[in-house]
Every structure is written in C-alpha cells, then in structure tokens.
Amino acid sequence: MSTNETPLRQKSIALIGFMGVGKTSIGKEVAKMLYRDFIDADKEIEAAFHMPASEIFQTYGEKVFRHKEKEILQKLCKQKLKIISLGGGAFLQEEIRNVCLEECIVFYLDLSWESWQERISLLIDSRPVLQGKSLKEIKALFEERKSIYQDHHSAVATDQLMIEDAAAYIVKSLKTAWDIYEPQNN
Ligand code: S3P
C-alpha cells in the first residue's frame, strides 16, 4: 500500500463515495478520533470562489468547478496527517484518482441505492449534478460512479452503520494496517 516515501501512519486519509453518503460527517468523526484536521475539498473550492458549489456550477459551469477541484486536491492529497473528504465526482478525474491513491489511504463509503434513495430530498437542492435528472438517470449515475470508486484501499458498507460506528470501523481498520505494515516496538 505504501508506494511513496511517506510512512503509512502519516498518510492522509481520503474518503470517497457518491454524494450524500456521509463523507463529511464520518470524516469529521474520524478526524476527532485520530486527533487530525478534517478538510472538506468542496469547502475549499467554495472558499476559492466565495460561493456555494451550486452557484459555481451556475455561474462558471462544471468544467471550471472540476478544474479547481483538481488543482485543490492535487495539493491537499500531498499533505500529511489530514482527513480529507472528496466531492462525489472528484474521483472521475484520473489525475485526482492517481494522486489520491498514491499519497493517501483511500476509504470508499459504500451505501446501497436503496438507502441512498431515502436521502434524496435532503440532497437535491444543494447538489447541482442531481438537478433536472429523473430518478432513473440518477440511478444510472449512481451505478456508473460505483465502478469508479472501486479503485480504493479499503471499503466500508455503511447501510447499517451510524456515523460513529462507521468512523470507529475506519479507525480500527487503519490501526490494523499500521500495525501490520509499520509495527512499533512499544
Ligand atoms: C459532486 C458532488 C458534490 C460536489 C459537487 C459535485 C458530484 O460533493 O463536489 O456538487 O459530481 O458528485 P458531495 O459528494 O460532497 O456531495
């Protein structure tokens, strides 16, 4: 797993998955448990434009959003000891995928379509990618993205898990990997 110079224990943790699966809330919890800083990549993009993602899409278009997303994530992923939540479309960009898999430990938050559907009303207004799409089209996007997210280091099936449980699972899994690959003497 450790393909670059950074010790595994210092690598940042990247959370990927479809929009609304809980990357931010679970990420914040993991950060708390590991005494690390949490960074939401979307918030960084929004800060750069001084507007919410939906307005960036509206004003400048998706291409400009994606360009900034790539620029920001290429820098963020190289930082150590962070917990980073990626926007659901970020992994579609090969450069982001590559830098993330090389520099970070990537966890895929895997939520079923059935569970995800129950959240749709909470997401639709703030997620430009969902707007104007039928449920059938959203399902197709969900399925299509699933294959992109298969490039990860570890996955968590979150359907039956509360935020704290998913975070605890990730922390436990990390500690196991650290102990196996970078055992400490004490
Ligand atoms: C997007 C997901 C959003 C945000 C933007 C585009 C996508 O992030 O980056 O609206 O293409 O899936 P979340 O996954 O945090 O909702």
TrEMBL record:
Its main location: cytoplasm. ATP binds at G20, V21, G22, K23, T24, S25, R127. Keywords: Amino-acid biosynthesis, Aromatic amino acid biosynthesis, ATP-binding, Cytoplasm, Kinase, Magnesium, Metal-binding, Nucleotide-binding, Transferase. The keyword Cell membrane does not apply. It comes from the Bacteria. CDD domains: SK. Gene3D superfamilies: P-loop containing nucleotide triphosphate hydrolases (3.40.50.300). Its EC number is 2.7.1.71. Its cofactor is Mg(2+). Binds 1 Mg(2+) ion per subunit. It is found in: Cytoplasm. SUPFAM superfamilies: P-loop containing nucleoside triphosphate hydrolases. Mg(2+) binds at T24. It catalyses: shikimate + ATP = 3-phosphoshikimate + ADP + H(+). Pfam families: SKI (PF01202). InterPro entries: P-loop_NTPase, Shikimate/glucono_kinase, Shikimate_kinase/TSH1, Shikimate_kinase_CS. It is an enzyme of class 2 (transferase). GO terms for molecular function: ATP binding; magnesium ion binding; shikimate kinase activity. Substrate binds at D42, R66, G88, R145. One of its GO terms (biological process) is amino acid biosynthetic process. GO terms for cellular component: cytosol. Belongs to the shikimate kinase family. Catalyzes the specific phosphorylation of the 3-hydroxyl group of shikimic acid using ATP as a cosubstrate. Monomer. This is Shikimate kinase. The lineage of its organism: Bacteria, Bacillati, Bacillota, Bacilli, Bacillales. The gene is aroK.
